[in-house]
Amino acid sequence: MNVTIKDIAKALGISIATVSRAMSNSPEIKTETRERVLEMARKMNYKPNIWARNLQNRQNNLIGVVVPEFITFFFPEIIMGIQEVLNPLGYQVLICSSCESSETERKNVCMLEKNMVDGMIVSVSHESKNRDLFERLLNEHIPLVFVNRVFEDLPSARIVIDDHKWAYKAVEHLIKAGYRKIAHLAGNEHLSVTKGRIQGYIDALTDYGIPYDPRLLMHVGVQQQVAKVGLRYLLSLKVKPDAIFAVNDPVAIGVYLELKERGIRVPDDMGLVGFSDSPTGKVLGLSSVEQPTFEMGRKAAEMLLWQIQHKEINTETLVLDAKLNIRKSSMRQHH
Amino acid sequence: MNVTIKDIAKALGISIATVSRAMSNSPEIKTETRERVLEMARKMNYKPNIWARNLQNRQNNLIGVVVPEFITFFFPEIIMGIQEVLNPLGYQVLICSSCESSETERKNVCMLEKNMVDGMIVSVSHESKNRDLFERLLNEHIPLVFVNRVFEDLPSARIVIDDHKWAYKAVEHLIKAGYRKIAHLAGNEHLSVTKGRIQGYIDALTDYGIPYDPRLLMHVGVQQQVAKVGLRYLLSLKVKPDAIFAVNDPVAIGVYLELKERGIRVPDDMGLVGFSDSPTGKVLGLSSVEQPTFEMGRKAAEMLLWQIQHKEINTETLVLDAKLNIRKSSMRQHH
DNA sequence: CTGAAAGCGCTAACAT
DNA sequence: ATGTTAGCGCTTTCAG
After folding, report:
1. pLDDT digits (tens, 9 = 90+) for B143-183
2. Reduced to 3 states, what is the DSSP secondary structure of residue B46?
3. Smallest Cα–C1' distance to nucleotide C2: which residue has it?
4. Residue B16 CA to D6 C1' — how many Å?
5. N or C: which end of chain A has fewer CB within 10 A?
């Protein structure tokens, strides 16, 4: 059995109220009494019961985070940013992975609700199916912030980068490097980031007078293993592409490995640009758009805190800056 | 204000006990009453207060996990294994990163204690300084399992692989591939995995008649950025090594990149083997020892559950199998 | 400054 | 089968 304030009170011959006050550093207590209580608490190895306290305070300093996965660096870095802000403030973070499944995502969110988290930070799974669920959360005024993968039509707080702009820059870079038949391996259709990146791709081509050819655009998803299928399709085309802009680094890496396998040289035979700048991409010399992952996490945490503290839902969208890192995968020597 | 069983009871004109029984699916209740309660609960959007329940049950189904980092694939995979077992059973997992700092690790553990987790799974930070802390936990009979990085002299549950054996195999492989001056970039001195891998390295050399040269062994730590320093040292030696066995993949990758930078060819001029088989190492063609990460997590969770259920500390060490993946970084064509 | 007492929402005897 | 009641450990009025 654990030691409670009752035990301390009894041992000291004082009331539990006094002990409680000593513990919570209340001003209305004699310094001497407090010291005696603290001393005894230490001696008896007292540990406050957090559930009793939460029950009283109706707040548990728990924040839920739901991400699609946390095996690759991207979401872990966001999570670190979140914890960096929240942990020092005494918040605990419950991390859930939806494993890119909307069903699991729904379970995670319900579980977090059951655990009465003070708020949630979510990056939605690639199917982006649970609009109704998050709408309900919003209606119930549960503080909620979306990061990276969002629902555009939901009045919620959001942390994103300008996918359109950075996709545009990536494709523009390929054009300036001399590539002309630029393909795009896009993510899942309903994913927020997919749409922005596709439009950026199309707009860059158009602006540089390259007609957009829908056959060079294929939705493959966001995982490395699907890249092979996409590449096979692109290479089967009559007019093969000379460069590929991939929706993210895992897909770009999948493409890279498959190209190597087939003896197609990067960047000479095929230019390649990814998105999100993974460590693996970096060592492979893959050009990529770098997102400020830690900062995204920090900002998401701050925006959530604001909502919790102001007891008010925030519908602001914060657009952070990004950066195009050019490496050898898109630096053709001659063409 | 949230709806409580009291509200439901009042709305239905019944007692709170009946409502409580309906909620917990007690057998001693009329089916019809239960349905009416459940119906009303749904209508009123009732959500059970988990703190009140925990206060009553003195159990919160919370498990704490402390890992050194979760940016690279390794610990995330272990964590996924843990969650795979624990989540379906209704446990929530609190994930903390010690950021390879013993001080942060101590804070994390204390925080988890404060949150009254039912148990902890820990992989200690590379300094391995908090022996006293974990000893206290063990003395207080808090269920605890170490994974991967352990304290050998603490009577605790442990999930590991045979570092000695697999380091031996890695070095043996280099020897059989024709390398003779094999160096070892080792991890932090007090880290459990470091010791086993060093001994495996030494024993393999000895068994194959290659005298162990202490100058070819250097403690560099476990992070990619320190590899450069280690390599610079090794290349400054009079008798330069022709192969390097690195304590883990990050270090091996750091070495790989630096070798490339300097125009030293892998595997022809320098053989290279890592440890833990990272995705990045994989795409670089780095030979490495693969650890069963998911399985380690699953087993750790199971061992912890056992302790929780049996209310008894377990001091078993479970040694899982591993695998040496040979890739081109150690496949010299000729020598 | 300290104590008595009520109550947070729920469960589990104990009654009926 | 249902209701009554006493806590779980803590905080917080309200008295003194």
Report:
1. 999 999 999 999 999 999 999 999 999 999 999 999 999 99
2. coil
3. A18
4. 14
5. N
